[in-house]
TrEMBL record:
It comes from Salmonella enterica subsp. indica serovar 45:a:e,n,x. SUPFAM superfamilies: CheY-like (SSF52172). It comes from the Bacteria. Keywords: Phosphoprotein. This is Response regulator. The modification 4-aspartylphosphate is found at residue 56. Pfam families: Response_reg.
Length: 75
């Protein structure tokens, strides 16, 4: 079974670490990266094309929903 490639977008370092540690214990998931801002998330999405994005809605440079809209419109 192929692993679900997962990108975590979270600006709170402790929460991002907890999410990474939790997903690493689950064999179905492969964490391919962690981004703490929209701009770095956009680059990682283009580069890695994750199957799943765990997304914080309130980021330092904008809202998570805006990142979703951007991703859908550029796909």
């Amino acid at each position: 079974m192929d692993k679900i490639t997962t990108l975590i977008v979270e600006d709170e370092p402790l929460l991002a670490e907890i999410l990474v540690d939790t997903l690493k214990q689950l064999p179905a998931f492969d964490v391919i990266g962690v981004a703490d801002k929209q701009e770095s998330a956009k680059k990682m999405i283009r580069l890695y094309q994750p199957q799943l994005i765990l997304l914080d809605n309130f980021l330092p440079d904008g809202k998570g929903i805006d990142l979703i809209r951007h991703t859908v419109n550029t796909s």
